[in-house]
Design goal:
By secondary structure, the chain is an alpha/beta fold. It is about 40% helix and about 15% strand. About 50% of the residues are buried.
Length: about 350
């Protein structure tokens, strides 16, 4: 899970500071028996990566997306009501798509994973990386990096609960902090999870204590991939541009990259990364293209929920989309001031016309 806060607007430079090797091959990604393709995928984004966002990302080049993290107990309590049923709704064009679980009690993970499989998710991802205070304070997410025995019990319960053809994956940070003990626990969980049949592990280059402050340590990702060998490692952290995606793949040797906050308001990052990898000019969305995608995203939100929910969702997304506009501050403020879909559409009409 990624808690997308206002820190999204701070784009920290990656640790990469050398030109990539021109001959480095970018390999297609697979997760267990699930073929993904180009190895830039969309991460689970709490409060963002619902069905409409995932569909937009897929249409703009994301080969795989993850639903926003769901608390295991919340999943078990879903009753199919219209107000909540969208959490488990998957459309045909989303596959392959992953569902992400977070919780505190190992016993709850197996039944929750079974429910995600029944809903149609192709991969079950376990969150051991969320650093936000409510998650860690509730003994969820990144907290589990402090207790390998509990983390590995969770892995066991999920792997035993779902069919063998459904890959199980993990999301981890590089530890609770930078202490030697934390490092040892990280590798204990990493190796233990692979030994228990986990198909891939996504590693974020920050610690839990860092939250979203400071640079992601790509050197650590490089070390982890060297340690893992042929086992699948997906890198995460500071992927705010298409070039950063290519740089991480080449510098660290990871098998894939997971784009989190960098995909909010810029779903074109996936097709841009693929263009760079193939040596083509990187497509930059002009205002006409930005308008098209904003309206498409809005229509998907209305279809998935209702106009009131779509208005709130699109206001949050559009504030991030505004960063690509030639007048980002004015457009961001205009979107922030909208309170209904008619006002939101008026902002789109004013700022995203062909003559703007």
């Amino acid at each position: 899970m990624t808690n997308a806060t206002s820190q999204l607007d701070r784009l920290p430079p990656p640790v990469w500071n050398q030109p990539p090797a021109a001959s480095f091959p970018i390999r297609p990604l697979s997760i267990g028996g699930v073929a993904i393709g180009f190895p830039a995928v969309q991460a689970a984004l709490s409060g963002y990566s619902d069905g409409p966002m995932r569909i937009v990302a897929r249409r703009l080049g994301a080969t795989y997306t993850l639903a926003e993290v769901m608390i295991d107990r919340f999943i078990m309590e879903l009753k199919g009501r219209r107000k909540t049923q969208h959490h488990l709704r998957i459309t045909d064009e989303e596959h392959p798509v992953g569902g992400q679980l977070m919780g505190s009690n190992p016993v709850d993970f197996g039944p929750a994973a079974e429910k995600l499989v029944a809903a149609g998710f192709d991969v079950i991802d376990i969150n051991f990386g969320c650093p936000v205070k409510t998650a860690v304070g509730g003994c969820r997410g990144g907290y589990h990096l402090s207790q390998p025995h509990v983390a590995l019990e969770i892995v066991d319960r999920v792997r035993e609960a779902v069919p063998l053809q459904i890959p199980v994956t993990l999301k981890m940070r590089r530890g609770i902090d930078d202490s030697p003990q934390s490092r040892d626990r990280f590798f204990e969980i990493l190796d233990g999870a692979f030994a228990r049949g986990v198909a891939a592990i996504t590693v974020h280059g920050r610690t839990v204590d860092q939250k979203y402050v400071g640079a992601s340590n790509w050197d650590f990702l490089r070390e982890v991939k060297a340690h893992a060998g042929s086992r699948t490692i997906i890198g995460s952290g500071d992927l705010f541009t298409a070039q950063a995606c290519i740089d991480m793949l080449r510098w660290t040797g990871v098998d894939g990259v997971s784009v989190a906050r960098g995909a909010i308001g810029n779903p074109w990052i996936f097709q841009q990364a693929q263009a760079l990898a193939e040596g083509f000019p990187m497509p930059e969305p002009d205002l006409v293209e930005q308008r098209r995608v904003l309206l498409m995203h809005c229509e998907l939100c209305i279809s998935a929920t209702n106009e009131a929910t779509a208005s709130s969702t699109m206001r949050a997304h559009s504030i991030k989309f505004a960063r690509l506009h030639p007048q980002p501050d004015a457009v961001r403020n205009a979107f922030a001031a909208s309170h209904c879909l008619s006002e939101w559409r008026a902002v789109v009409d004013e700022w995203y016309s062909k003559t703007t």
